[in-house]
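Example 9 (inverse folding). The structure is encoded as follows.
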């Protein structure tokens, strides 16, 4: 396994060199998790998907340098993550029930949470195996192909660093704003999922730019991360409710899942209200004039 990558752009080095360093280090770690057959499979897949999200946030940040290239390789990385989504979602389903067991011990018996958890744990075990190994190998190959194409292209050499970074930073915030507006208007699971992606991208970009941005970036990043986790819980609940309704979770018919679904519905309503309030506050408090700040920081470091 490669060493833990430093996921931040150093002002003392050129943008193209830093982007390739981060791609190589983070990408290498992702591939290592995908090829790891000895450790905890669930944890490895989770870390691989987190790393791919970071890589995609980086490509979004420098997208203005070569939009077709960054967009195309971002999609390739997205498709790699989708190959291993099934096992990760099976793990998340077990974790979701575990959270409810911990949060509502008085509901365990009435909502049949222990029986549901056992069935989901057995389903998770069935999903792992040869098919998963093949999916992980294919995902690793796709990540390698994306990294190799980006490495060969060198698209950043002749572009203004500050302008490129500012455009990518603003785009993630614009995505956040649009997703928030739709989530507040319609409240559908898809809108909350889009909001979560935008929040996660902004969180990753704050990490990349922490040496360039003024203000209390550490505090903001912690708050954005907390919002992302809450939106992740909301997404897990929506996925669980959809699985219960469709029968896709493969639970025994003898288990009455209606009490659990009612508990999920009540809980997700409260979480959604809180998340929308926080998302609106954090978006309104986003760093102002990032282009000027970034250009000033880059000029000072030069």
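The amino acid assigned to each position is listed next.
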């Amino acid at each position: 396994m490669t060493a833990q990558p430093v996921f931040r752009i150093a002002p003392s080095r050129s943008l193209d060199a830093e982007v390739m360093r981060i791609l190589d280090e983070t990408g290498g770690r992702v591939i290592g998790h995908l090829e790891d057959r000895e450790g905890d499979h669930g944890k490895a897949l989770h870390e691989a998907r987190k790393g791919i999200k970071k890589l995609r946030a980086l490509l979004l940040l420098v997208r203005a340098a070569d939009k077709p290239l960054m967009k195309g390789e971002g999609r390739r990385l997205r498709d790699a993550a989708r190959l291993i989504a099934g096992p990760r979602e099976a793990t998340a389903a077990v974790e979701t029930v575990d959270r409810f067991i911990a949060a509502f011990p008085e509901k365990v018996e009435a909502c049949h949470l222990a029986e549901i958890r056992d069935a989901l744990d057995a389903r998770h075990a069935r999903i792992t195996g040869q098919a998963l190994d093949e999916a992980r190998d294919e995902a690793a190959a796709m990540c390698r192909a994306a990294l190799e194409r980006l490495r060969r292209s060198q698209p950043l050499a002749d572009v203004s660093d500050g302008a490129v970074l500012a455009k990518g930073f603003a785009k993630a915030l614009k995505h956040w704003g649009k997703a928030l507006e739709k989530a507040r208007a319609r409240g559908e699971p898809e809108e909350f999922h889009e909001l979560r992606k935008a929040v996660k991208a902004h969180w990753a970009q704050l990490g990349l730019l922490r040496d360039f941005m003024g203000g209390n970036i550490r505090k903001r990043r912690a708050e954005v991360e907390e919002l992302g986790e809450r939106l992740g819980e909301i997404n897990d609940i929506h996925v669980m409710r959809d699985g219960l309704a469709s029968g896709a979770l493969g639970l025994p018919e003898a288990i009455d899942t209606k009490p659990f679904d009612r508990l999920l519905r009540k809980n997700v309503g409260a979480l959604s209200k809180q998340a929308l309030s926080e998302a609106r506050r954090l978006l309104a408090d986003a760093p102002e004039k990032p282009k000027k700040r970034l250009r000033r920081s880059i000029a000072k470091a030069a």
